[in-house]
């Protein structure tokens, strides 16, 4: 652990990131007291900007990016903070979908370093404060902040939102958030503000979320109650409190989450143009979300790593048209629900290429193998790159390779 009282300065983004990785012994340390102290010292002004907080087990990243694209299409200046990144740290902070410069990130890190004094911050906390600082320097109509973990105690929750959105609620990060949907729902509902505006996109929200909405007297809209969607073979339709849109293009994301985003825009009081919406939907693609990166054989990458996201990936897989075998390249973190993930989807693949994730939280390929039977075609490798290259070498031109299980899987494949 780096001495928190030592003030430093670096001239490059890689140097700053190396410093942040050594700054705190823990990857995760939930709580807002330390972050709030530093945030208050920054004295940032968001009075001219509307802030949206997006939490959820799945879909918050894609929802954040879709909302940014839709707001930009309607003529607004929009800043966005997401985590984690896949290829380049600068992916985490965008203004009108564009990255900021390395120098801007370095300046922001320097500002946080000076403001924190003797206060120790984790990598995520430091980066979140720097992102908020960066976005405060821009002339923005909207700032969209993706919650990292949970909601109530996540570093993003230090900012007062004009709108709070929960996409879905399911089991994930159970060591930190709890072992059932009621407890996890309570944590995610921590982004609600008394008498504030909110959207809940979950199809069956836990009672804890409903109770928090009632106690805080929210102006909240609920999926299937105040807004809803219907999927048709080629298109989909959406009904909100004010708008109704038919013949919508299907974006490359769960329609449930796209529906939640439209409800969020309606809660913000925007006049929506169906032509602009459809143009965004048809072009929407977020890296690592059912993303096709190669053909002959077809290769698709997906960050799906928990039961809910795996079920959606399974739907995509079953609808995918191809002639050959389906081959899985899988790596996971050891704190994920490995058993449920593999058992949910194992019947959909003909062969498995399992890989170690060489990170502190990474599971070994042999850990994954225990959930597969001796009759399954399984190979184990010491890295994602090895597993992926072996799958490519063994695949026929009409096969389908799907690499999934963690952001680390996608990062290693795209940077290889």
UniProtKB/TrEMBL annotation:
On whether tRNA processing is a keyword of this UniProt record, the answer is no
Q: What is its EC class?
A: ligase
InterPro entries noted in UniProt: Folylpolyglutamate_synth, Folylpolyglutamate_synth_CS, Mur-like_cat_sf, Mur_ligase_C, Mur_ligase_C_dom_sf, Mur_ligase_cen
Q: Which domain of life is it from?
A: Bacteria
User: Which EC numbers does the record give?
Assistant: 6.3.2.12, 6.3.2.17
Q: Does the keyword Ligase apply?
A: yes
Q: Gene3D superfamilies attached here?
A: Mur ligase, C-terminal domain, Mur-like, catalytic domain
Q: What Pfam families does the annotation carry?
A: Mur_ligase_C, Mur_ligase_M
Q: Which GO terms describe its molecular function?
A: dihydrofolate synthase activity; tetrahydrofolylpolyglutamate synthase activity
Residues covered by the Mur ligase central domain: 55-201
Alphabetized PANTHER family for the sequence: DIHYDROFOLATE SYNTHETASE-RELATED, FOLYLPOLYGLUTAMATE SYNTHASE-RELATED
Kindly give the NCBIfam families that the UniProt entry links to this protein: folC, PRK10846.1
According to its UniProt entry, the function of this protein is described as: Functions in two distinct reactions of the de novo folate biosynthetic pathway. Catalyzes the addition of a glutamate residue to dihydropteroate (7,8-dihydropteroate or H2Pte) to form dihydrofolate (7,8-dihydrofolate monoglutamate or H2Pte-Glu). Also catalyzes successive additions of L-glutamate to tetrahydrofolate or 10-formyltetrahydrofolate or 5,10-methylenetetrahydrofolate, leading to folylpolyglutamate derivatives.
- Name recorded for this polypeptide: Dihydrofolate synthase/folylpolyglutamate synthase
The protein's organism comes out as Catenovulum adriaticum
